[in-house]
Every structure is written in structure tokens, then in C-alpha cells.
Amino acid sequence: MTPSTELHPQSPYPYSRLPLPLIQPILDPHHFAPSCLVAQKAGISDLKASPSTLPSYQFHGPHTLSIVINGKNLRLSSYRIPAGIYVFVNVDSRRRWKSAISFLSSDESVAWGNVVTLSSHTSPTLSVEIRASYEADRMLGSGEVIGELQISWDELLDHGDEPFDLSFPPVRGVHPSLTLKAVVVYACDDQDGALSDSLVDRKISRDTDAGHAQFVEYVTSENVSHLNAAVEHFQLVLDQCPVSHPDHATALTNLAWARFIGYIRNDLQDIDATISLFRDALALRPQRHPDHSLSLNNLTEALNWRHDKKGTAADIREAAQLYHELLPLCPEGTYLRSTTAGENGVDYVIGRCNDLPKDASDEGIHLRRVVLELCPLGHQLRPRALDELAKAVEARFDQHGSIDDLDTSIQLGREAVSLCPEGHSNCDYYLDNLAYSLVSRFNHQGKPNDLDEAISLHEEALCLRPVGHKSRDLSLDNLGGAFIARFNKRGNIDAITRAISLYREALTLRPPGHPHRDNTLSNLAVALQARYNRMDVSEDLNEAIDLYRESLRLNRHDNPQRHRTLHNLSSVLCSRFTQTQENEDVEEAITLCQESLATLSSLHPDRYFSYMRLQVAYLSRYDYLHDPADLSLAVENFRLASWHPTQGFPQRIIQAYNLTVAAEQHGHALEAYSTFFELLDAHLATRSSATSRREAAASFYYARTLPVDAASYAIRCDNLQHAVELMEQGRGQQWSLGSRLRTPVEDLESANPNLAHSYLELSKCVSDAAQSSATITDRAAADRAATEYRRITRQWEAAVAEIRDLRVFSRFLLPPLYEDLQAAARQGPVIILIASQYSCSAIIVPTSGDPHHVPLPIASPGQYDTHLIGTKAAAERSNSPAADTFTSIPLHAAHPFRTNPDGSKEPCLEDLYICSYTPTLPALVRSRQGMKKRVTPSFVTVGQGQPGGGKGKALLAVDSELELVHKLVPATADRTTISGDAATRAGALEALQENTWVHLACHGKQDPAQPYDSHFVMKDDHLTLLDIMERDIPNAEFAFLSACHTAVGDEETPDEVIYLAAGLQFAGFKSVVGTLWEVDDAVAKHVVKAFYTNMFEDLKDGGAMDCTKAA
């Protein structure tokens, strides 16, 4: 990052203190006669008398009424910023007057408006002084003289009733001035009373004033003898003001200030003692003390200068904290505010803090937040402050793996980029840093949009860094990393080719001796290793090893990235070991991983990679030496990698998948499969919508057969119950996650009503957050919504954990066990068909007892014979959750095809059972639980035969089909028909929610690429599967889908069977009739007639409509 604009600590001239409009008694050793207050006359009625004036007296002779209106160009010779400014008028030794102490404005002006009467017969002239007060509370001495002049009474009265300016000798190039107005008024009795102080106080005041005078002489003449005299006077005052004295803090401050300016001018050296004096003064002026802000400012400026001269980071950190407290105490428009908030005040501190090394500690991040708060919207340094905070927060993510930190970093980075107009000098850095954070989040969460946006931002930054730009190497390196991530995700050869090309160019810009050459060497090796893993080019492997070794040679042992090069080199050595069987390679690989682990804290996210590489190394050595200890070590490191809490789910899921492949040969596969499903479930749970969950699951396309492979392995281990559990856990994750917020809690309400209420409320909050985030398109807003969703989800998960602490609810919302799943077979056995690459089987779940296994011959999908040998049972109905290859096969349509020796046909499935289908066993269990609550049936027919432009051809038989259904439905049901223009998306949704039985006649479309977009065609908008799933229809019973493709599954995640009919069952319908293929309009009508005739034939003599007869 380029350094910010060069700033310096605030000049000691001026320094400010916060003034308050207070009136104080004169603490001069002389005697003062009080001023006389007179009634205001015409022409001055708009001016208010000063509250500082003393009680009025009787007038006897001519006096002058003088009104001090304002002052301008009020600069101090000492450059010291005062607490306030006041006017001092001296007629003679007995008659003196002092105005209010008022704020000095940012334009070096003051407004007073004080009214005073002064006797003119005793002296031909009077003295007018402008003085600075360094205390807003209790003054010590008379302060510093800004200007002083003598003026005669005639000069004063020569202007009549008009205001006039009284100009003073120049100070630092400008003439201070007062605007006055004077008139003759009645006389009043003179008062000879005096305001006298003790002799000690008079001496303290005289010494203080002498110190100020000497200090001004030092500043203007640069004669050190005056500084020494000033310090001597101020030290004498301090000696006379012990800690208990009310002026002790003021005495400390005056002495500290004189010493401080001497330090700045190199006339004194001991800044540490000076800072201690400022600290002591601040301690005596706590919050709400009138001079608290002044002491804050003094200490801050001293810390700034010590940092500038000594480079002490602690000083600039403390200065930032002090400014954070000080700025709110400085009113806008005051001189203190203008100097404090200027480029030599707060901006200096911001700039120096921005140059501090990245600190991921909580204290370091707190400092960055303080600095950001010192940069409000519109501040020129805000983009840099945002960027520095973003990097610190991301560094904490790198150490601890909290996704909240990474999200925060991205939000900050987005704002920094948004604040950079075209041509901003640092825009390329902010683009690059934001892109880097997006790649990190992609690696952690696997969201493809993050990677695409990151590459776009990196390329934009690279365009701003043409050939010859000093930071082009950085852009080349970062963009190369993004293309490696794209290659690893999508297998795009062009991506890895581009990455290697970028790294080779970057390497030319980082020749030997460049401080970051080791990083580029290592990154190029990563790219070559990735290409080797996909394309098996041995030259890539050998070059990668050489590059890693050179990188390590250049790498210092305290380099925070060294561990990555260690475990990456370990990985390529293992790859070479599998080719050459050279034992030295695998031994070195294990040593390198162990060294990598030794450098990382227990929760560092990158420990995952070292565990993973160790697992591969031990497994490779086991394959070579067959030592069972190596297999045990491999499994142990797999466990450590898979459950490392600070690594993102995608990496851990990939590791679990890789082990399932290896474990099929070596054992322990059940653990690997279970771990995969648990991690995938946790990963999908972080996504707020069904669509995003499906996209996340589809990204692991290579693992889509794992549910059937897991069941196959459990069968081969003679663990049929676990096979059923794994099958259901793996294939039903989308439905399980979608339904978890709808889980009935009646039993929980009886056991713990408060906990049940809390759970239901949080479930609603999670649901609402998910739905609101689904419509957000702005990326920054989407990030904020994701953070909020995660926050609410954590609360929900805490409530679930509390529920599980109750003994009878210990498995609340956990994957069901076999005994729970067996409830699906209460009305007849359930047959689960499993077509794995390892075996082909059927598992029969009976009404009671253990499941039965029926092995099937492995064949290509087109050769499966669908009759099941040995499945005879007493039940009349069978439900078949078909898996993978079987998903789209109409098992109920299987006919006899095998002939016995006696010429008879062997019984097939249709002869033994009445078949129906269920997407998952839990879905069937839920539907039967819902049947316990029966309501009065209401039947609605919804038809759309004229969908309108471009939505499909007209279905001419729809209206007659609806009429037919209306006639066949028993009159005891409340019957409604919606068709034509009334059959809209909203109308259909309302009909689904308000009726228990539904018949839909329209076009149906299954979207194999985006199954949640599968839909029924209505008059206006499509009625999508997602629309249906978002509705909870607990009283729904039956739906007949007279439309095409309503029971065809997802081509990318076939085991999930995401289709329209399943969506209706998910929404609450107990029985659903769907279609596997396109249905002719006229044929559909005949099917409908036959179906409903059979369905309701038993109701002629009365009886209730029963959806279970649909099969």
C-alpha cells in the first residue's frame, strides 16, 4: 500500500484549549473598583449586559458607557491556543474591568457584547488590553497579553453612537482589533472597594504572569535564556501549588507547555518528563471538568511529537484514542476544533496509524475502528482507514477463521472502493484488497459469485497497473491466485494456463533479491502442481518441487506464510512418491507437515491443510509398506482435518470425499461417509434459501453418488440399519433443511412451554430473514443480509442445543435413526432401491424388525429388470423411495417378463404390492402424522388451458377435464373451480392454501438445471416449486397434478428428487399424484376419469374422502 500524504505533528503554534464563556474575578495583586452597570439607552437596547458585571450604583456625574462587541485577528505571540479571550480595561489602579471569557472561533475572532460603565473624571486616558486565558475554569494569573494600547477619553467618545474599530499593534503579521461603541451616560457613585487576594495567591499570580511573559519572549526571540526563565517561574509556581491546591493542574500544564516547546525547538531533551506532567494534569481534570478537553489536547500533541522524533508506535496509538475522546468535546467553529481536526492534528495521527504494521489482535482492530471513527464521511483519509481496518479484520480471520470477520472485511473494502473517484491514487490497491478478500471467502464458503467478482476486480486493478507500474507484480500474483481457484472449482484449463502465465510474468518483476520473490516462486509452484494433479504432466511436478525448495531457501523462518510452502512441498513430494516409490520423498513429506504444524496455533485455519497433507502422506506410506500404524495415523489426521473448527466447510467436505474414495479400499469408509454428510449438512445450513442450498450442494457434483455408495458400503459391512440411515441422511438433505423450521413442537410445548415459544419465535425470525434476503440483488446489501441471517441462525442453533439438553429431546432435529424411519412402513413395507458403482441392491424396511437385503445384478441403467425377487410380504401397499438410477423409472409399470419351466409367468412387483413413491422416508412419516388431524374436505380444481403468449400451446381439454372432476367429486365436499383469467399465480397459491384437496390441470415444466424454478403455467406468472415450498399448508391432504413432468427429478443432484410433486408433499400434502413424462391432453382426461371413479366408488353409500386410497 502506498503511504498516505505526508503529514507532520501539529505545530506547537497554535495549540488550543476549549474556552467556556465564564466570568471570573480578577486575581491580580492590585485593588479593583467594580464597574458600574447602567440602564441601557436607545440605540443599544439589543445588547445585553454582561452577567459578570457587579451590582449598579447611583449616578452623580458624567461617565462613559463602553460596549465591547467583538474582536478579530486575535493571534497569540506564543502560538499557544487559549481556552478563551477576554478584554481588560484599566482606568486607574482602582478602576478596572474584565469582560467575559469567550470562545476563540476558527477565524480567530471572538464575540462578547459586554456592557460596562467607567468613570472618566479621574484619568485622561485608559488602558485596553486583549488577553488570552489558558484556563476555562479557574484562572491562574492574568494570562497572555495579545494586544495593549492607551486611548484617551476624547478618542473613545469621538465616534458618537457608531461602532468603531480599535486596532492594536501587529502580532504575527496581523493587527488584532476590537469593535467598540461608547456614549456618555449619567454618573454613579465611585466605589473604592477592592477585590483582594492573599499575599500567597498574589505571588503565585505574579510568578505565573512573569512566566507567560518570559515564554512569549522566548518564542519571539528564540533566546533560550527566556525559556529557562519561564521554566524557572513556572516551576516556582508549581512548588507553591501542592497536589491539594486548586491551581495544581494549571501549574503542571504551564510548566509542561514551556518544556514541551523547548523540546520541539531542540532546546530541551526530556520529553518523557514533560509528558508525565501533562498526564498528571489530565488526571486532575477528569471528564466534565471545564479544562478536560484542553488537557487531552496537550497530552495528544506531546505524544505526537515524541512519536515523530522517536517513532514509538504506542504514542501514536494512544494519541488516536485521545483524539477519539477529544473531538466530540470540541464544538464546531471553535479554534480548537479547527486545529485539532486539521492535517497537523487528527489527520497526522490517522496517517501515522495507517502506516502502522497490520495487527490482527483485538486491541489492534479496536485501534483501527477508532481511527475510522476519526474519519467521518467525506474525510479524505476515510478510504485508507477503511482499507486498513479491512486488512486487520481479515488477518484475524486468517488466524481464527471467523466468517464474520471476513464478511466485515469485505463490507469495509466495498465502501473503500465506492469512495474512490476515477483517478484516485489508491484505487488499484483498494480494488486488489477487496478482490483478495472475496477469493478468501470463496475458498471458505464456496460461493461462485465471490470468485467471479474477485477476478473482475483483480483485472480492473491490473489495468490500473500497466507495464512499468511499481505494483504490477502484486496484481499479477493476486490475479493468478484467483485463476487457480477457478481452475480447482471448474476444471477450466484456460484458467490454469492463465495463472501460470501471470506468475511467470510476476517472477520477472521480482528478480533475485526482491523481498517477495519467495511468494511468487511458491505461488507458481502451486499452479504447476494444480495442473499436474489434473493433467499428470511430470515436468510440472518436478518444476513445482524445485520452485518450492527455492522459495523455502529464501523464506525466513519467522515468515508468517512459511507453513504453507512447507505443506505444499509435502504434497508434491507425496505425488512423486506415488510415481517413483522413493521412500525419501514420503519421509520428507511427513517431516515437512509436522514442521508446518509446529508453527501454527491450535485454532489456526491452515492447520487443516497440514492435517490433510499428513493424512495423504501416511496413507501413501501405508500403501507402500502396509504398516497398520500408518493407516491409523492417516485416519486420525483425517479426523483432525475434517473437524478443524476454523476451516471452511467446502475444504473439509472435499477432504471427507477424498477419504471415502480411499477408504473404500482401506476401510473406515463408514466414518468417512458419515463425516461427509454431517459436514455437507452444516455447510448447506449456512445458506438462507432453498435455491442457494441446492447450488451449494450441486457444486460437489463429483459426490452426488455418495448416498448410494454409503448405503452400499454399509450393506457390504452387513449393517443394513445404518445403510438405511446413511441413505436417508445423504439423499434428503435439501428437504430436511427446508422442513426443520416447520417441525411440530407439541410435545416440547408440554414439557417446556417457554423453550418451545422461544424456538418457534426464532424459527420465524430465521424464515423471515431467509425470505427477505432472497430478493436482494445488491452485493453489499446481500453481504449484510447474510451476516444478519447467520446471527439469527446462531441464536436458533443455541435454542436447538438447549432443547437437546432435555433427555427426551436429545435427538431433536438430528438425522433420524432406523427405528424412527421404520415408522414409514407401518402401513406396508418400504423398498429402497440402491444403484451404486460398487453394488446394486434393494433394502426392504418391514413393518417391524430388521431390514432385508435383496442383492441385484449390476447392469447399465437401461438393463435394470424391475421385478424384485424375494420381496413377498403380507402388506398390500409398498412405498419405494427410488435412488439415483431408479429415480425416473416407473417401477409400478413393471410387467412379467420371466417365464417359469411350466410356462407360467413369475410374479413381479405389481402382483405383490400396490406401489406408491415417496421422496424420502421422513416425508412419508410426516405426511402420516398429519393425517391424524382431519378437517372438513374442500376440493378445488385449478385449470389453465390458455396460458397466453409464449407459455405453451392451448390445452383444449382442460375445461372439460375440470367439469368432469367436479362431477366425480362427492357432493359432501365443498367444491370450487378456478380457471381462465382467474387461474393466476396468486389465485393458484390461495387455492392451495385454503383447500384440502387440489386438482391442477395445466402445463407443467420441470427445470432440470434449476429444479426450484420448475413450475405450473398460469395466466400471468409461473407458479414455481419454490413458491409452493415457501407455503406451509398443514391441512392439505391430496393433490392431483394433471401436468407434464411433475415427478421428474434433478439431473445434477438426482438423489435429492427435487420435483413438483415432492414440493407439494413438502408443503403439507399427504398424497400427491404426479407424472414422469409428457401427458397428452386427451389421454389425461381419460386417466382422470378412471382415477377419480376408483377413488370415490366406496363413497356412494357415505363415508369420508380418504387420500390414502390414491395408490
From TrEMBL:
Species of provenance: Suillus placidus
InterPro entries (UniProt xref): CHAT_dom, TPR-like_helical_dom_sf
Residue intervals of the CHAT domain: 889-1096
Keywords, in A-Z order: Repeat, TPR repeat
SUPFAM superfamilies: HCP-like (SSF81901), TPR-like (SSF48452)
Keyword set includes Metal-binding: no
Stated name of the protein: CHAT domain-containing protein
Pfam family for this entry, one: CHAT
